[in-house]
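Quick start: read one record
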Amino acid sequence: MTGTRRQSTFLLFLGLLALAVVACSPAAGDEFATEAIQAERTAEVEKAEIKDSDTEDAGDDQPDSASAGRDESDENTGDAEDTDAMEEQSGDFADSEATDDRTNGDDQGKGEEPVDAPANSDGDATVPAEVANEDGFYTGDDRNERQRIISEGWATDWNRHTVPYSELLALLPVRDGIPAIDEPTFIAPGEASAWLADNEPVITFEHSGDARAYPLQIMTYHEIVNDEVGDLPVTVTFCPLCNSAIVFDRNLYGTVYDFGTSGWLRNSDLVMYDRQTESLWQQFTGEGIVGTLAGAQLTFLPSSIVSFADFKAGYPEGMVLSRETGHQRPYGQNPYPGYDAIGQNPFAFVGVPDGRLAAMERVITVSLDEVDVAYPLSLLFEAGVINDTQGGQELVIFHMGGTSSALDAPVIQLGADVGATGAFNPNLNGQKLTFVKQDGIIVDEQTGSSWNILGQATDGPLTGEMLAPIIHGDYFWFAWAAFRPETVIFGS
């Protein structure tokens, strides 16, 4: 690793630490995290790390291949020397060694009640639980001591999980250290323009005529908003480490769930928890991975990251999440400056990233009929439009400039222009449309109508029409590939 990359990694860690300190600061109005609790938890975690380290040193019989895997991981995800300081503050990374058999979870329990799995009645931590049973569940509570300390008092059923605990990194010493927004308030776009620049990225979601924008300058500091849009209870989520903005229906089996941040990560991705059963959920897949609801699947809802200007133009009556969140945060500032640089290492990712693309390459992704496809942003920059068919589904991918990265410059509105994307069904009113980009404008070849990034026809014979959205994501490649390793890369 070069000196520049070492410095970049260390600066990123300082940014994450600062974010955690701000998030846990009682001065910011958080009732759940005082400085005394944080200091006590951190001290307990450090003691647990020392004990874990001593145990590992005394009984380390890892084969050479495992050691070689860790050495290769250092080259790809961060030099061991760089993580020493991180371990002292945020947990021992060695306890979260990568495994080759990651659980995807997309099909498991989808649309069904969770499968009952046999539980270890005594929860003996000495019972190995690294092999899933035939139903895909790990049974028995084999958390390490640090994980037990951090989760003390949680009502989670730890005997029921779909992933091994060795894959879970307990990053923050308190749950809800990054506070979700449970009572969001909204303002008109004109009012938001006083502090939200036109090029700033927002998560946009619309249901039953109710369109809302969730600025990433706010989402970066909260990661979860529990909301109701057009009478639909939803959870809007954003994991900055994976650049994953995902909206879920939070009505499951007739119960509306509220979600918060657990302080844990898996494959660098946010692990949520629900406040009703205190089960843990993987943000990237929407799957319950630990607890009563392990194996359950949340429903993904179509959303996208676009510029504030695009949102205003597409939804002039839409509403914008207000900065009046009940917390004091430096909204508009990016606590992860330079994180999305193409040569950067993903933070808190243990393992070897899929080498088919650079780890931090941005990809536009879809999952159709059990086919996962990634479209590199670099291709879309050149083409503007990709007409395609995958898994028997016809689709079109749009790209338009004008949206800044939330993870580049220290001030978000000064971030590099990475543009925005949309994925749509090209069939409209019984007619298959094909699209091209001409002079910076997306048009269909059949009618010559113009279209915006939201899939709305803005000029021509089809003005007022709208394409049906296809659920897609704009992610960093390393994260998508970790959860969906069989992904097909378009153009490769």
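The two ends are 28 Å apart (CA to CA).
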